[in-house]
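Suppose you are handed a protein chain with no further information: no name, no annotation, nothing but its sequence. What can you learn? This example shows the usual starting point.
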Amino acid sequence: MKFKGHRVLIIGDTHDSPHIPQDRFIWIGKYIKDHSPDYIVHIGDCGSFDSLSHFQANDTQQGKLKDAYLVDLESMRKALSILHKYIKDIPHHICLGNHEMRVHKFEERIPEIQGIMKKSLYDSFYDYGWTVSEYGEFKYIGGVAFVHAPLNIMGREYGGKNAEVQIANDSVHDLVFGHTHKARDWKAIKIGSKQWVRIINVGCSLPYGHIEEYAKLNMNGWSWNITEIGIWDNHIQENTFISMDRLEREYGNN
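A reasonable first move is to predict its three-dimensional structure. Written in structure tokens, the prediction is:
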């Protein structure tokens, strides 16, 4: 029987880095090949781009150990090339994240190189067939919005322990996002007959158990997974979180 609506496979924040193994891109690719979704969405922060991080200033000890931008970029391109072997025939889209925005912000401070670094970033996605939406911009599939992080009335990301509740209170349609690395599925009932919105936070697609240095002392509760949803009648009707641990066990030795 043909599926009624759209099946979408969402890859969470992958934060690719030259210092993190890339096996997970093979596992994700093999899962996609086996399950043949209609669409693939990467929710953003495909690469970490720690080379451009302002948290480690260049004149500090940590800053002096940072990789060059091209090292980060080539690592991400390699990750994209691994995925491409499995997903090239399926429409795939990326919602740019705050880590991709590091490239934008770095260029803004150096007018002489305006456009050069951003072009290399966008070309990396275009070369492997990805369509791209800007940071904060919605990509719609079947009436459902996809974005790395929805922005509030002040132009800031929703955050905190109950970000999904806040988003649901403000949203007029179902929405899928990432950014916080915490998987959550929240349905909010609205006034009126059959009125509701469903908000899915897809967690992250880093290796199972991996926590970035900046968050190791935080109250984090991260989730490591990819997400598969079914959309019809302009709503998310089905949702499955597939853990990175399961992907490794199923595809790690194949």
